[in-house]
Amino acid sequence: MADELAFGSTATHAVPASAIDQVIGQEHAVEVIRLAARQRRAVLLVGEPGTGKSMLAAAMAELMPAGSACDVLVHANPDARTLPRVEEVPAGTGSRVVEQANARHRQERQGIAYLLGVAIGAVLLLGVLVALVVTPYAAAGGAFAAILLVVLRRRLLSVPPQAGVRLLIDRSGQERAPFVDATGAQAGGLLGDVRHDPYQSGGFETEAHELVEPGAIHRAHGGVLFVDEISSLSLESQQRLLTALQEGRLAITGRHSGSSGAMVRTDPVPCDTVLVVAANPEELPSIHPALRSRLRGFGFEVLTADSFERTPEHEAAIARFVAQEIRRDGRIPHFAGDAVAAVVEEAARRAEPGRLTLRLRELGGLVRAAGDLAAAEGVPLVDGRHVEEARALALSIEEQAAMRASRERGVLRQIPVEGHDRQTRA
After folding, report:
1. Rounded-to-integer distance, Cα 332 and Cα 324, Å
2. Strand partners, 88
3. What is the DSSP letter of 207?
4. What is the mean pLDDT of the chain?
5. CB contact set of 77 (below 8 Å; sequence gap of 6+)
6. Could you say which DSSP state residue 230 is in?
7. What's the confidence (pLDDT) of residue 129?
8. What ranges in 134-177 are assigned the alpha helix state H?
9. Which of 102, 159, 232, 269 is deepest in the core (most CB within 10 A)?
10. Nearby residues of 206 by Cβ (< 8 Å), 6 or more positions away
11. Using CA atoms, how far apart are residues 148 and 389, in angstroms rounded to an integer?
């Protein structure tokens, strides 16, 4: 096959710049992703692990227009401390608002510190004058009052400045729609939370707006929120996610009953996102029925392919995948033609006859293992020998266990001795 296609070094393979053009063997999914990005539709990607679901989601964010991005500010609420106010400002202006508020706050603190300094000097001077004219005990009283003012001034300057406003979400310099991978995030990480403040009494407590943390759904506003392995989310979190997607806004509140932030609740924060959910086929029953209904009613469901027909064009696509993995890794040498041919043969071995596997994450592990072997030898190119040696390194635990069991069965045989079985070398 290497002679037929004459694979050259992967150094000569062109790699597409856009993520959507780097997807291998998922033509139907690519078509749906392009349409969903243009129309801002939700997508449910179902398929075997390693078939490119996360790459398709990231590519969707690249295809979507940036839209009207905005910065989000959270303000202290003097009327209700546990109800911080939220403000939306044009993207890139939020930091200036915070800087201006901090500057005003510093000026106010410096003015108060200056007045306290003048008061300290006046009290000391007055105490000395009274001591000289009336009674010497007045000096002690003036000194005590001055000490109190000094302590008050130092306390004022030692407390961290809180200007009453904080930049919650910064979109300055973002030219593309955001892509946020919320895979594995629990309720707080997905929907936002309020940090616990251990200093809750004695006047040392942190203002509520300083403790508010946005969730992945807020950071993905205007872009794509990707959730892989949706079954790891509780049904309650899936229901809250659905509600937020329907309303396009979600207040941030404390999600732990024992936390000091349990009573904190902000104004609704914008979260107009496009949801892309990925799941393995066996995970479909774990998706909340209402969420699944919305995905079907307001988006697309796509079953990704796990293999494609073995043709010269598809073999060339596997070769391009090898080149992409080498450039993405950045630490392994390029592959020679016979090494590329060996990877293609491995892709055929992992699929049904006449087909090539599209579980490319596992195939990528073989590419990196072969590259690591060549890098350890210090050679400029990976050859077919490295790929063959890497096959043993890239085996899964199950494959290693099966190989060990097969080897032991071939080495040991049972010999009956006086009614008992005895093992001996074959």
Report:
1. 12
2. 72
3. P
4. 84
5. 83, 84, 85, 208, 209
6. G
7. 67
8. 137-158
9. 269
10. 162, 197, 199
11. 78
Global pTM reads 0.78
DSSP type of residue 94: H
Q: Encoding tokens for residue 84?
A: 């911080």
Q: Shortest CA distance to 177 belongs to which of 298, 35, 40?
A: 40
How many helices (H) does the chain have, and how many strands (E)?
14, 18
**42 CB contacts (<8 Å, ≥6 apart)?**
36, 245, 274, 275, 276, 277, 294, 295, 298, 299, 300
DSSP letter at 227 equals E
Q: Quote the pLDDT of residue 13.
A: 87
**213 with 195: CB under 8 angstroms?**
yes
Output DSSP code: residue 161. Answer: P
Q: Return the C-alpha torsion angle 374, 375, 380, 381, nearest 10.
A: 40
The DSSP line for 4-53 is HHT---GGG----SSSGGG--S-HHHHHHHHHHHHHT-EEEEE--TTSSH
Low-confidence stretches of the chain (pLDDT beneath 70): 1-6, 67-68, 105, 108-110, 113-114, 116, 120, 123-144, 149, 152-163, 199-205, 411-426
Here the tokens at position 418 are 């006086």
The CA distance from 33 to 27, in Å, is 10
Whether 86 contacts 74, CB under 8 Å: yes
pLDDT at residue number 138: 61
